[in-house]
Specification:
Blueprint (H helix, E strand, L loop, with lengths): L8 E6 L4 E8 L18 E4 L9 E7 L2 E2 L2 E2 L13 E6 L3 E14 L5 H5 L5 E13 L4 E17 L1
Parallel strand pairs: 2-3, 4-9
Antiparallel strand pairs: 1-2, 1-7, 3-4, 5-6, 7-8, 8-10, 9-10
């Protein structure tokens, strides 16, 4: 599908995870790390608002928690989302950008491939990120990140 002009994303739907979550804008903290959605809301995702909007040319970033203290969260099961699964992003311009997953990978936080995940792309792509791997409270929580890589495949009216 041809890329779209920029428009704020408002909701992400992932049928394979049975997720329909509102999207909030996120920024980088003072250490240059991407913020996360409010952990008090299990059904909330965030997009990097200073980057590419989903459906526009380049690499858009959406993050959500895998769990919270009260149970599974929006991106629980992201690590098992197979290639071919679809992700719909509803946008403020009343269009729905549909992406197809082409890979899901897990990376140790100590060896995270920032360029592969956040680097530029020529076509409209989407990265879904959450925590994964072993949970070690003493070491600060989850020790890995799960990243799903997707490409824009269609656009329809919302």
């Amino acid at each position: 599908a041809p890329p779209l002009p920029a428009a704020r994303p408002v909701r992400i739907d992932i049928p394979g995870l049975r997720v329909s979550a509102p999207l909030v804008g996120l920024t980088l903290d003072d250490r240059g790390r991407l913020g996360v959605p409010d952990p008090a809301d299990r059904n909330l995702a965030g997009w990097y608002r200073d980057g590419v909007t989903p459906g526009s040319p380049g690499n858009a970033i959406v993050v959500a928690h895998v769990d919270t203290p009260t149970g599974p969260a929006a991106f629980a099961g992201l690590d098992a989302l197979p290639p071919g699964a679809t992700v719909d992003v509803r946008r403020a311009d009343r269009r729905i950008a549909t992406f197809r997953i082409y890979a899901t990978e897990e990376y140790e936080k100590s060896d995270f491939p920032s360029t592969r995940v956040y680097g530029p792309t020529k076509d409209a792509q989407l990265r879904l990120l959450t925590c994964g791997g072993a949970y070690d409270r003493g070491a600060g929580g989850y020790q890995s990140n799960v990243v799903a890589f997707a490409r824009l495949v269609s656009v329809r009216p919302g």
